[in-house]
Each structure stands twice: as structure tokens, then as C-alpha cells.
Amino acid sequence: MNRVFRHDPIDFASMPPAIKGLIIANIAGFLVAKLVGGPVIAEIFGLVPRHLVFDRWVWQPITYLFLHGNLWHLIFNLFALWMFGMPVEAQWGGKDFLKYYFLCGLGAALTSTLLGVRSTVPVIGASGSVYGLLVAYAMLYPDAVVYLYFLIPVKAAHMAILFGALEFFAGASGATPGVARFAHLGGMITGYFYIRWWWVLKLRAKSLAKGLFERGAAEAPARAPARRPARSASDRDGEDEMVEVDRILDKILASGLESLSADEKEIMARYSRGRKPS
Fold it and tell me: Looking at the domain assignment, is residue 85 inside a domain?
């Protein structure tokens, strides 16, 4: 079954499970922090590098993603989660989407920690993961048009590059000390490297394993002779499709995901979910 998405008017009931769950968790985290006391919750469940490194508060690189400083911070991140997350989850499915989301959040946490090991200032918010989703969206749909600030049309790939540059220069200049700019950048870089290399290597590994399995199956009759049934048309089509998958993988390694056509991306999306292309 092919996954599809549409950006209809926001309808919570029709959202896919992963995004729906993340929205509920973020809203719940925000409300709990307001009821209990923001500073107390941020100290314990936000990302405080000193606590993480020296006190081993190892839950913080996950829990900090569900806390937000104010309502606008929460609304912006949830809107971006819906906007960029819908097409990404539609391509990858809920399991791979959540793995990527939390991986980008961990990358953002690691960046913040390395840049301030002894810092006692809590870092909160899902922005690192959200910026990672922007990168995933830009790599899957580089030519998609996004309206920056709801007014300026730009390609998704250009928007990701622009935001990455802005985060770097804002962080390097210290223009906004209350915003963890390098955490945002860490989420973007983590997402890029994951998609550009690990995701491709995973597909290659699946292709290799499938090839070894098919080779073993082909050698089995030599060890135990038996009447081999004639190959059906679907079997021949399957072999042709595996040749096509290998060709696409070589193209990704040579030129990147952005070089793929829409049909090639759909073939690889289905193959990465463990189903034969069709």
C-alpha cells in the first residue's frame, strides 16, 4: 500500500499516528511545566549539560524535546512538525520517522553539550528535531515550493541551506543568546548525514543480503537436483526490478538523493520498507 499525504486544512483526527503522538506529548509536556513550575521542570527534564555529563541525568537528551519556553515556541514547532513531518512520515512510515526525529534531537543535544559541558542553562524545545525534519523534507522534495514567512516562495532545498546558514551565523555572532542556535544546526547536520550516508548504506546492505539469499537459493538445486519449475512472468519482472533498485542505489551514491526522479524515490521508499518495488 502506497503512503500518500496531502496538506489539507489541519485536521488532527486525520494525522498519521507518529505525528499525532508527538503533538500530544509536546502539548502535555508544556501544560505539565506550566502547572508544576517551568524552572523546576526545565532543571530536571530540560537539557542541562552539566547535569548530563557530571550527574548522569541520562534522560535529559530525550525529555528536553517535550518542553517549550512559551506558547509561541510550542506553536511554531508543532506547525513545523506538521508541515515538514507529514510528507516525511508518508515516505518512511511511522517507525523510521520516529527514529529519525529522535536521532536529530539527540544530535542537537550532543552539539549543545559539547559546546558547553559545564553549562547550567537548560536547553528546551523540539527545534533540533524539527530542523532535522526540514533537512529530510528538502532532501526528499528539493524542488518543492515553500512560502517563507507565508509570503516568499523558495525551493525547499534553498530554504534548508538558508536556515542552516542563518543558524550558524546567528550562533557564531551570539546575536540571540537565549536561543540554542547550534542545537538547531546540530539537528540539521545529524539529519543530513543520516540520510546522505546511513540511509543509503542501509539500503545497500538490504540489497546485498537479498542478493546473497537469491544466490544461495540458485545454488541449492546443484546440491539437491530437482525439477526446476519454469519462471513465471512475475519472477522475471522481480529480477528486472532488483536491477533497477541497484541502478538507483548507484545513482544515489554518485549524485545524492536530490538526483532521483519522483518515480525513483517512490521505488526506493517502498524498498526501504521491506517490500519489493512494483
Answer: yes
